[in-house]
Amino acid sequence: MTVTGAHDGETPETAACRPAHRRSASRTRTALRAAAAFRFGKYGYEGTSVRDIAGDVGVDAALVYRYFGSKEALFNDVVGTDKIFEPLLHEPVETIPDWFCALLLGPPSDGDFPHPVLTVLRSSGRDEAVARLRADFTEVFTKRLAARLTGPDADLRAELLAAWMLGTSLMRTEIRPPALASAPDATLERYLRAGIEILLGPSPRHDERTTGTGDPHHTPDDR
C-alpha cells in the first residue's frame, strides 16, 4: 500500500503543491493515518518523519501537527492495538472465528495498520514499545475479551488466541515458510477454526471430564 495523494495523471510534486483546502478534513486525516501506518510499519518510529508522512499525502507537515498534535500522538493513534482489534470486541463470540479467519487469510499485503510485533522490533525505544504493546493486549484480550468467554482459564485462552493470531500473521506475511505460504485458504481456514473454537470455549466433553470430580480421567461409569 502506497498512499501518494496524487490524482490520475499528477506527479507527486504536483500533488504536493495542490491546495489542501480542496480536500475535506476527514479525508485528509484518513489519508494521513494510512500513510503513517504504512511508514511506521515499514520503517519504524525513528525511521519515519512527519515530513515524509505529509509528503505521501501531498500536504504540508504543519497539517499533521494541526490534526494530531505531534508525531508521537499520530504514532499512538494508528498503531494502538486497541484500535486494530476494536471490531473484535463487538463481534458475537460465535462469529469471532469468522472475524479472525477474514483477518488472517488472503494474500500477504500491507494492511491498514503496521504489525504490532514489527513495530516493537523496529522501535529504538524497545522497552517502552514492549510496555505499550503489553498494556494494549492486556486491555483488549486479558480483560475485555476474556470477560466475554465462559469456562475456565478465560484470560489464558484469550491471550493464547492473541499469540496465535500474531504469530500466524507474522509468519504468513513476513517470514513465509513454504507450507504456510502455499497452503490453500480453505485448508488453512480449517485448522485455524479448529484451534480458535477450542480457545473460545472448551467443548462440553472437556467440561464433563473435569467438572465436579477433580479427576480428569473420571467417567460416569467409574465406581
Number of strands: 0
Strand content: under 5%
* Average predicted confidence as pLDDT: 76
Helix content: 55-70%
Class by SSE composition: mainly alpha
| General form | globular
The DSSP helix count reads: 13
The major pleated sheet works out as:
none
Distance between the termini: 64 Å
Low-pLDDT stretches are 1-21, 204-223
Cα-atom Rg, whole angstroms? Answer: 22 Å
Q: Helix and strand succession?
A: HHHHHHHHHHHHH
DNA-binding region: 49-68
Domain HTH tetR-type: 26-86
Region (Disordered): 1-26, 202-223
Keywords: DNA-binding, Transcription, Transcription regulation
Write up what this structure looks like.
The protein is mostly helical and 223 residues long. It is 63% helix and 0% strand. It contains 13 helices and no strands. It has helices at residues 12-17, 25-43, 50-57, 61-68, 71-79, 81-85, 96-104, 116-121, 126-145, 154-175, 178-182, 185-200, 204-210. Helix 3 (50-57) packs across helix 4. The longest helix has 22 residues, at 154-175. Mean pLDDT is 76; it is low at 1-21 and 204-223. Keywords: DNA-binding, Transcription, Transcription regulation. Pfam families: TetR_C_16, TetR_N. This is TetR/AcrR family transcriptional regulator. Residues 49-68 bind DNA. Residues 1-26, 202-223 are annotated as: Disordered.
